[in-house]
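cron nightly-structures :: item 1 of 1
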Amino acid sequence: MLIRIDPSSSVPLGDQVAASVRGAIADGAVKAGDRLPPARELAESLGINLHTVLRGYQQLRDEGLIELRRGRGAVVADGATGQRAELVRLTRELVATARRLGLAEPEVLDLVRGELSSR
């Protein structure tokens, strides 16, 4: 699996690592049960700090896309599907857009609840 980052981007490197893995899950390049590169090796190959990679992996863990296990490393979670990864990506875009527009959290939640109840 190829993980790419852009050091000149304003997006934090850990977020870029997470986005790259999320995209690979969404595209089907990696599937449930697949192992991700060890954080230390990935950090060395990308020329970034180990903790930056771990931050990206923790983000994916918090999203339910990977599991972090001692001795086993990072493994794509059983429930991780392309659809879930895509939904996480779109949710992040929604939150970023809402923040850029100055919407408060209750407003955003009301909009989402309204959409969910209209279907």
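cron nightly-structures :: done
The mean pLDDT is 92.
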